[in-house]
UniProtKB/TrEMBL annotation:
<dbReference type="GO" id="GO:0004360">
    <property type="term" value="F:glutamine-fructose-6-phosphate transaminase (isomerizing) activity"/>
</dbReference>
<feature type="domain" description="SIS">
    <location>
        <begin position="281"/>
        <end position="419"/>
    </location>
</feature>
<dbReference type="Pfam" id="PF01380">
    <property type="entry name" value="SIS"/>
</dbReference>
<keyword id="KW-0808">Transferase</keyword>
<dbReference type="GO" id="GO:0006047">
    <property type="term" value="P:UDP-N-acetylglucosamine metabolic process"/>
</dbReference>
<dbReference type="InterPro" id="IPR046348">
    <property type="entry name" value="SIS_dom_sf"/>
</dbReference>
<feature type="domain" description="Glutamine amidotransferase type-2">
    <location>
        <begin position="2"/>
        <end position="218"/>
    </location>
</feature>
<dbReference type="GO" id="GO:0006487">
    <property type="term" value="P:protein N-linked glycosylation"/>
</dbReference>
<dbReference type="InterPro" id="IPR001347">
    <property type="entry name" value="SIS_dom"/>
</dbReference>
<dbReference type="Pfam" id="PF13522">
    <property type="entry name" value="GATase_6"/>
</dbReference>
<dbReference type="GO" id="GO:0005975">
    <property type="term" value="P:carbohydrate metabolic process"/>
</dbReference>
<feature type="active site" description="Nucleophile; for GATase activity">
    <location>
        <position position="2"/>
    </location>
</feature>
<dbReference type="InterPro" id="IPR017932">
    <property type="entry name" value="GATase_2_dom"/>
</dbReference>
<feature type="active site" description="For Fru-6P isomerization activity">
    <location>
        <position position="591"/>
    </location>
</feature>
<protein>
    <recommendedName>
        <fullName>Glutamine--fructose-6-phosphate aminotransferase [isomerizing]</fullName>
        <ecNumber>2.6.1.16</ecNumber>
    </recommendedName>
</protein>
<keyword id="KW-0315">Glutamine amidotransferase</keyword>
<dbReference type="InterPro" id="IPR035490">
    <property type="entry name" value="GlmS/FrlB_SIS"/>
</dbReference>
Amino acid sequence: MCGIIGCVGRGDETLDTLVHGLSKLEYRGYDSAGVALANDHIDLCKHSGKIADLREALSDRTLSGSVGIGHTRWSTHGPPTDENAHPHQDCTGDVAVVHNGIIENYQSLRDELVGAGHTFTSDTDTEVVPHLIEDALSSGADPEDAVREAIGRLDGSFAIAVVVAGCDSVFAARNDSPLVLGIGEDATYLASDVPAFRDFTDKVVYLADGEFARLNDDGWTVTDTDGTVIEKDVDTVQWDPEETGKSGYDHFMLKEIHEQPRALRQCLRGRVDELAGTVDIGDLGDLSPTGVQFVACGTSYHAALHGAQLFREAGIPAQAFLASEYATATPPIGDALVVGVTQSGETADTLSALRAARRRGARTLAVTNVVGSTAARECDHALYIRAGPEIGVAATKTFASQLAALNLLALGTSSTGDARQVISALRDLPGHVQEVLDESAAQEVAELYQDASAYFFIGRGYQNPVALEGALKMKEITYKHAEGFAAGELKHGPLALVTENTPVFAIVTGDDERARKTIGNVKEVEARDAPVVAITDGQSDVERYADHVLHIPETHPRAAAVLANTHLQLVSYHTAALLGRNIDKPRNLAKSVTVE
């Protein structure tokens, strides 16, 4: 959930490198931030608030050192204050630590350390780590052994980086929380995510659970818990550093909404043959699932609902589960394929669900955006959505790419009578999304309803997950009340909330029974004086009953879900902009939820 950066080898540029890396990681947390540089002592500066607040604090300070670590925080233990900001130090001030994750046994460790005379200055679980290292150093251990000894006493999830006064190294370890090394020509980096150092190198090494890294002027080494050196592959990042900039857009979210045509082309490239009417995902092997269980959270869960419907319509039993529920009450699996849908590949609840499935002998597949992520490494198979880096906390282009990738998965592993039509619609999808982006009246709708007391979203079939996702986006970035429903559920309770000040967004595509029934639901809310915004391809007569219409091109219902979602993303974005919200960094949220 938090962002870690470290570097060795940048000389006088170390501080600037750390702060630059933190600015690239702020989507992971923005409650507070700090840096620590090591020389014969530790120079440290930290501050509550955003990276800009840290920069201002640094303007009055002189920090020196060619070895350093930094951190941007999303609060778990303790509120976002200067005292709770990372890095944390020991009693001597000779050890500095940054941490992402949760140390589950921190209270017993803290009680032990307080009893031994240590003084704590924060409410965080992290602060036990520098004090444990201090104890080991005072007993004669060298810095690396002291860090290893402290790490060995921790229970829970963590990515940890450490510097020690008088030592020219950064030490790091991970367990259930991501860490990646960046290998430059004259410098070495570590971070929670590649964007932190992508401006300096495209060579990366992904650390696995239980691995320990040491970075110094001689380079880097990775060892296991016993100190045995592990030979690691050095991978090359395929995306360009410019992809993590705003490219002239006011917000990352708007930029990433507009990147959806390119993201979809990348997802589909080399995987569909429209002439043959086939899909090639042969690198996954012959999955041939007789049943599918999807596990996911948040936006990815809405994509999983879409995926489950695809398989059910192909005659294969499929369900989507909230990963947090699946992990603690795993249902019978049988010989089902368990598919984890996770943008980052590091979502803690989804990883727990996948591990629970593996313990029961299930085959597992990760549908993810990040090569080398924990989910991709731990699952039997990985299907990459190829969306490119996404910085905005609210997922946009990754959701569209997840829907496309799940269509490919269903087409490539099952039989459906309209495969050619679906493939044709998928090939047209990037152009159709561009058409929506170019012509959407979403801003005008947002201007009309920015003061609404609540927003409701309804849809059936493939459009039900889109309704849920539309409501989630509205909640995430506008802070307004929003709910999504299967359209038929309106009259079973939610209709009591509908008033003239609660616009209802109705997604109606095609002219089949689902469309006709949804129009019936539109009439129900219209009779209660609620304004109706229809998202439609024009095949039905829903426009007769709508106050406003957002048009999408006529296409297959599977692809129509992506197009309708694009309109709803834009409505939420423009509403949030009109309300003056912090769109890329919504309150209380972070991009990648790496703690349970």
